[in-house]
Amino acid sequence: MSENIAPFPVSENEQNKEDQQVKDTGGIGGQRLMSFIERIERLEEEKTALMEDLKEVYAEAKGVGFDVKVMRKLVSLRKMDVEKRRETEELLDLYKSAIGMM
Asked: How high is the pLDDT of residue 27?
C-alpha cells in the first residue's frame, strides 16, 4: 500500500540541510549555529508574509479613499511617546514658520 503513496516533496532548502553535515569547527558549535540560522530563516519568512499583509491592508484602505501616505505618518506618530511627538510637532511648526509656510 505504501507503494501508491508519493513521497512528500522536500524543498531545496531542506534538501541542502540534509546534504550538509553540521559539525563543530574551530570552537564554533555547528548545531547551535545551525539552530540560530534556521530560526532567523523562519523569522525572515514570517516577516515577508507580514509585509505582504501590510501591503494588502494599505491597498484596501486606498481602495476606499484613504490617503496611504498620511496613514503611514499617523502610524509613525502613534509609535512615538507623547513628549517626543509634541517636540517633533513643535519643531515642525517652527521650521514651517521660518520658511513662511504658516
From this structure: 74
